[in-house]
Amino acid sequence: MECCRRATPGTPLLFLAFLLLSSRTARSEEDRDGLWDAWGPWSECSRTCGGGASYSLRRCLSNKSCEGRNIRYRTCSNVDCPPEAGDFRAQQCSAHNDVKHHGQFYEWLPVSNDPDNPCSLKCQAKGTTLVVELAPKVLDGTRCYTESLDMCISGLCQVSAGFFPFYFSRKFHLCVNILYGPAIS
């Protein structure tokens, strides 16, 4: 596993300290004008296993618009799902099996790896060539692509290690656990 090269002792702690300090600095600069209320509590995770997303909201206290985001995300439930749980996108497609499409019931199978819109719920009727977008966006925490840790959040594909809230991706947890034991949960 490439990410799991043995690092010198203390490297993960330095990395975590850097992330926390840079986050605190960015947050204090962003909130310096005092126009934002405090961040609210984290929501329930969108999934119970397999990696999901949780969000926290804050309110703009000004009559004017506030600079910055009013929502932030983090990964959660970064434990493997049991094999019988099945694919998360497939679960979302099969939820439409009891809904008629053009007057007919279908058994829906997931269409994955759509390069144009990886976060829409496209499903194929079993035994046919019929492919339908059953929802404009998949549930938060659905993988953008089958062989990727990137996940869909609010209908957009987010790179799991591309910005601060997703640094603590499943891959990061696995590597830290392999090298140093399960210190981060």
Describe the structure.
There is one protein chain. The chain has 185 residues and is an alpha+beta fold. The chain has a domain at 82-185. Helix content is 21%, strand content 17%. The chain has 3 helices and 7 strands, in the order αββαβββββα. The protein has helices spanning 11-31, 88-94, 170-180; strands at residues 52-57, 71-76, 108-110, 121-125, 131-135, 151-153, 156-158. It has a 3-stranded antiparallel β-sheet, with helices on one face. Strands 1-2 form a two-stranded antiparallel sheet. A two-stranded antiparallel ribbon has the order 6-7. It is elongated, with a radius of gyration of 20 Å.
The total strand number stands at: 7
SSE run: HEEHEEEEEH
Radius of gyration: 20 Å
Helix/strand class: alpha+beta
Overall pLDDT = 77
| Helix share, percent | 10-25%
Query: How would you sum up the major sheet?
Result: 3 strands, antiparallel
Distance between the amino and carboxyl termini = 20 Å
Sequence stretches where pLDDT stays below 50 over 5 or more residues: 1-28, 162-185
Strand content: 15-25%
Shape: elongated
The strand line-up of the biggest sheet is 3-4-5
Subcellular location: Secreted
InterPro entries: ADAMTS/ADAMTS-like, ADAMTS_ADAMTS-like, TSP1_rpt, TSP1_rpt_sf
Keywords: Disulfide bond, Secreted, Signal
Protein name: ADAMTS like 1
